[in-house]
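Chapter summary example.
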Amino acid sequence: MKKTMAISVLTVFALSIASSAFAGAVCPQPRKTASAPSNIASQDKTGSANAEKGKLIYTKKAKPMACKMCHGENGDGAGKLGKALKPAPRNFTCADTMKDVSPGQMFWIIKKGSKGTGMVAHGKTLKDNEIWDVVKYIRTTFVK
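The structure predicted for these 144 residues follows.
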């Protein structure tokens, strides 16, 4: 009896840990994020952007916190802080979600934030070219 109870408790505990570890990996992720103005949404300046600089911003430099804190080291939305957010941070590894998110839309969201989510605006702390660097890093590293 005690052994069965202990196994049951451990199973429930393990499942709760596993489900929280994959919370950010939901695919596809439904969102009602406001669309960028069409002149911004249609832009793609990743051709002249620098993915290495974008990686530095994503992993360390962005303020008030690095992107990876919410979006995760692997871009799957399972960062340390992201686990507490509702809705979960964007899972950049989800092709079904990302196929509908243009580079210009990503730029707009990073710059302006996303109302109703934990995504804060970075337009006051990052220059436009730095935001494009981050967009290029995300799109060339995580988006498949």
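To summarize the output: The chain has one domain: 2-141.
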